[in-house]
Write a structure and sequence with these properties.
The protein is an all-beta fold and 165 residues long. The protein folds into 2 domains: 93 residues, no CATH class; 61 residues, no CATH class. The protein is built from no helices and 10 strands. 11% of the residues are buried. This is Cadherin-like domain-containing protein.
Length: 165
Amino acid sequence: EDTAVAGNLLGNDSDIDGDPLEVTQVLVDVDGDGVADVLALGTPTALSDASGALIGTLTVGSDGSYVFTPAPNYAGPVPVASYTISDGAGGTASSTLEIAITPVDDTLAITGLTDGPVAGTDGTVDEGALADGTDPTSPDESVAGSFTVSVADGVAALEVNGTVL
């Protein structure tokens, strides 16, 4: 998640006659309609799901190089790319490029904090009203709301569960 994947489709290929190999065609479903489209070699191409949400961008060069850059926070299936290589002398072969995106827990950000006077030293935020078991990578679980951290001399650091924000 959030990290580009790069490689070379020809990295494990060779020609028995020693002819140079090149990628001649790449097919991938770019818009989630279930139909493979021809990818323009060397051109970054956006891949989206059926609802139009961006999955990421795929670039494949005729030299076999490829880069897939996932959309921010995307975790899920990536359309399989089918490709054909040629030795320029009539020999061809086909294969597929399959990319798996592994989700990672993102750092949570707290916004909407305001200043104000509070007596005392260390403060504690009681999150008892928040739902149990929330997962920052799950699109199905969320809690909305706000809270205020007030310190008379300003906030030097905010630590949540051992992490300084």
